[in-house]
Amino acid sequence: MDKVVRLTGTGGVEHLSAQDQERKAPGPGEIRIRQEAIGVNFIDIYHRMGLYPLPALPTILGVEGAGVVEEVGAGVTAVSAGDRITYAGAPVGAYATARLLPAARAVRLPDDIPLPLAAASMVRGMTAHMLLTRTYPVGPDSTLLVHAAAGGLGLMLVRWARYLGATVIGTVGSEAKASLARDAGAQHLVVGRQADLVGAIAELTGGRGVDVAYDGIGGDMLRKSLACVRPFGTVASIGQAGGAIPPLDVAEIGPRRALCLARPSVMAYSADPAIYPIAAEAVLQAMRRGIVGTIGGTYPLAEAARAHADLEAGRSSGSLLLIP
Q1: Phi (first) and psi of residue 250, to 5 degrees
Q2: Is the CB of residue 219 less than 8 Å from the CB of residue 150?
Q3: What percent of the chain has pLDDT above 90?
Q4: C-beta separation of 317 from 53 below 8 A
Q5: Is the pTM of this model over 0.85?
Q6: Is pLDDT at 297 greater than 90 in this prediction?
Q7: Residue 68 contacts by C-beta under 8 Å, 6 or more apart in sequence?
Q8: What are 49-59's pLDDT values in tens digits?
Q9: pLDDT of 60-79, one tens digit each?
Q10: CA 8, CA 5: separation in Å to the nearest integer?
Q11: Surface-to-core class of residue 244, CB atoms within 10 Å of its CB (0-12 exposed, 13-18 middle, 19+ buried)
Q12: Of residues 78, 113, 149, the one with CA closest to residue 287
């Protein structure tokens, strides 16, 4: 029997239930993976809450993991039993000791990348690649605002942006998290939820504003992010960990501000069969340069609800993993 964590209804963590599941054999074009580590992401929380609806319930959450191929289905030639692989994106179903996956989603891992590190890095790495190359091309002349800079995505964004030569300003909730973001390469930090963010950014940029802001906080923070960006700059709204995003009048971004407002989706990005292998290879190369997810905590698979609660409440930093 395999062990899984099923979502039985939308809402709180009480809807996550550890259960047994009969072993399933891979069909044509599929592989069966024995998982070593599973990434916990905010998108899992959004799925659990029903913000991003799933096709049917009950279901198994999770969009990221790493493990070893146990068996391959008919027609699969790109990977073999015994290969170490990782993956990111759809189809959901990672919260399991073993799972079936379309072979095209499997990314073979070099021997020098540990499986848990891959599970902590793939979704965040794909997101960072999307944000730094597609949403707004970042380079040495760019100045960035990264919210939650000590979070799983935030730390990876800081590391990758610094590798590209950008200037990084981060926001964090405490001095302890400021130390993590600073170690990752953030040159400037705005500490505390009640800090005067707009004033701090104006001072740090000489009144110009940043070129691009990455806002996964949502709520009232999005309007503050808009006020931190220079004319013709970009705000990428990538989540709402701090609350629902309020309706915005188009006049709030232009014509006076002349801003670009993006709402990019890593699920859509990774679902593109042309983009996925290119972005995945870029993430692997980034990991070899030390641009990796920081593992902030590990939990037994059966305690997925506790991992969700800690991530949702901001009690964690870095990337959280479930260990089957």
Answers
A1: -60, -25
A2: no
A3: 90
A4: no
A5: yes
A6: yes
A7: 33, 34, 36, 82, 83, 84, 85, 115
A8: 999 999 999 99
A9: 999 999 999 999 999 999 99
A10: 9
A11: exposed
A12: 113
- Pairwise CA distance, residues 63 & 39, whole Å: 8
| DSSP β-bridge partners for residue 81 | none
| pLDDT of 255 strictly over 90 | no
Using only C-alpha atoms, the chain has a radius of gyration, in whole angstroms, of 20
Q: What is the pLDDT of residue 247?
A: 87
* Close Cβ partners of 225 (under 8 Å, ≥ 6 residues apart): 145, 147, 213, 215, 235, 237
Residue recorded with tokens 């990774």: 270
Two structure tokens written together for 310: 């800690």
CA-to-CA distance for 26 and 5, rounded, in angstroms? 20
Question: Could you write out the three-class secondary structure of the chain?
Answer: CEEEEEECCCCCHHHEEEEEECCCCCCCCEEEEEEEEEEECHHHHHHHHCCCCCCCCCEECCCEEEEEEEEECCCCCCCCCCCEEEEECCCCCCCECEEEEEHHHCEECCCCCCHHHHHHHHHHHHHHHHHHHHHCCCCCCCEEEECCCCEHHHHHHHHHHHHCCCEEEEEECCHHHHHHHHHHCCCEEEECCCCCHHHHHHHHCCCCCEEEEEECCCCCHHHHHHHHEEEEEEEEECCCCCCCCCCCCHHHCCCCCCCEEECCCHHHHHHCCCHHHHHHHHHHHHHHCCCCCCEEEEEEHHHHHHHHHHHHHCCCCEEEEEEC
138-191: pLDDT as tens digits: 999 999 999 999 999 999 999 999 999 999 999 999 999 999 999 999 999 999
- Band (17; pLDDT cuts 50, 70, 90): very high
CB atoms under 10 Å from CB of 288, counted, come to 12
128-151 exposure pattern, b = at least 16 Cβ within 10 A, e = fewer: bbbbbeebbebeeebbbbbbbbbb
The two three-digit tokens of residue 49, written as one number? 């809450």
Contact 124, 87 (CB under 8 A): no
- CA angle (69 as vertex; 297, 19 as ends), nearest 5: 55
